[in-house]
Design goal:
Elements lengths: L1 E5 H14 L11 E6 L3 E6 L3 E7 L2 E4 L1 E6 H10 L4 E7 L2 E6 L2 E6 L16 E5 L1 H9 L16 E9 L2 E9 L3 E8 L10 E4 H11 L6 E5 L3 E6 L2 E6 L18 E6 H11 L9 E7 L2 E8 L3 E7 L2 E2 L5 E6 H8 L6 E6 L6 E5 L5 E5 L5
Antiparallel strand pairs: 1-5, 1-7, 2-3, 2-6, 3-4, 4-17, 7-8, 8-9, 10-15, 11-12, 11-14, 12-13, 13-26, 15-16, 16-17, 18-22, 18-24, 19-20, 19-23, 20-21, 24-25, 25-26
Helix pairs in contact: 1-2, 5-6
Length: 369
């Protein structure tokens, strides 16, 4: 095999591969990236659970296929001068030429490189980059990192009906908070099995989406999901297990409503939490007709309070505590001017939403204060 490719193009492609390739593995081939030169130059990386394939622009002199150590190859290419890079296989090694620099690195047999079996993927539909970014960004912060509850270690993507319309919905929860976002259901998505998209896939996919301008093709089955855009295809296993019945967690009878400017609220929570307990990060909200008072205290750091103007619809005041980080995570998702809290009392979950946008819902469990 002999090919020439611009350093910039090669580095961009390898950066995508490198993110998925195993850093340490008892299976040596998983440390490698596969490069195939046929009608085009195709790069493949896998960690068994996830695979990324990307086509790069290159000039192919001699067809062939190789695998090279991803970390070594990435480090070399990153430091090469700008301009043309030539890759040429010789016996069991790959020679790399760029300007006056030359490297020779070992290769492993292409035959040893694993191929991800996908089987039949029956559901196929397309979404806009903006919709997919929203589905990820407005829910990923609530994904659990607790490995023992593995079925919460991802975003649950499925179709459902909301207010008489079919929607594509993303849900994530870690047991302390829940995030939900709806977008209009794309043609072909109806009836798709609900799938839990793993956290690692979410993070790697999100890094790539800022570069995408065309629609993203999604293919889904009960065990796999695939995203195709531009010259990139990412295929992944989904998390096995049943996502909890999240609709039971969303309160429907909360009748006490607090409305206020979300930027002022977030800034005040951030300020007051400076003196909150280092471990719990708790802040207390005192809500009444007079407005909102946010307070925090700890034996080590002291006390802090801040008052905010707010609209509240009940004569019954509420004292309720929350983890300040969780409050700020949710507040950062609000795009409109005002945020709305609906509550039942000081010990029940609160529902947080935007006043002018009903596509997203957040549920936050209170803390004892």
């Amino acid at each position: 095999m002999k090919v020439s490719i611009e350093k910039k193009e090669l580095f961009k492609t390898l950066s995508h591969m490198y993110a998925i390739t195993e850093r340490k593995s008892t299976i040596p081939i998983l440390l490698n990236v596969k490069i195939e030169a046929e009608d085009n130059l195709k790069f493949t990386a896998t960690n068994i659970d996830m695979e990324i394939v990307e086509i790069a622009e290159a000039s192919i002199s001699t067809k062939g296929a190789i695998t090279v150590p991803a970390q070594t190859f990435f480090d070399i290419v990153r430091k090469l001068p700008e301009g043309e890079v030539v890759l040429e296989t010789k016996n069991s090694k790959v020679d790399i030429y760029a300007g006056k620099a030359k490297f020779s690195i070992p290769s492993l047999p292409v035959e040893d490189f694993p191929v991800m079996a996908t089987g039949d993927i029956p559901f196929k539909f397309s979404v806009s980059p903006d919709d997919l970014i929203k589905l990820i960004d407005k829910t990923k912060f609530a994904v659990s990192t607790e490995e023992t509850r593995y079925f919460l270690n991802g975003i649950y993507l499925h179709t459902t009906e909301s207010k008489g319309k079919e929607v594509l919905r993303a849900v994530a929860t870690d047991g302390h908070r829940l995030a939900l976002l709806d977008v209009a259901s794309p043609e072909g998505a109806k009836g798709m099995p609900g799938v839990i998209i793993p956290r690692k896939l979410i993070m790697e996919l999100r890094k790539l989406l800022d570069e995408v301008s065309s629609e993203i093709k999604i293919e889904s089955s009960e065990s796999k999901i695939r995203f195709s855009f531009g010259n990139i295809v990412i295929t992944s296993k989904v998390i096995e297990g049943k996502f909890p019945n999240y609709e039971k967690v969303i309160p429907t009878g909360n009748d006490k409503v607090l409305e206020l400017d979300h930027n002022l609220f977030a800034t005040a929570v951030d300020r007051v939490s400076s003196v909150s307990n280092e471990k719990s990060k708790a802040v207390k909200l005192h809500i009444s007709r007079e407005g909102l008072t946010i307070s925090a205290n700890s034996p080590e750091a002291g006390t802090g309070t801040e008052e905010l103007d707010a609209t509240y619809n009940s004569d019954d005041s509420i004292d309720i505590g929350f983890n300040s980080k969780y409050l700020l995570d949710i507040a950062s998702q609000i795009e409109g001017k005002n945020v709305k809290f609906t509550m039942a009392d000081g010990s029940s979950p609160a529902v947080v939403s935007e006043i002018d946008d009903e596509s997203s819902v957040y549920v936050l469990m209170p803390m004892r204060i």
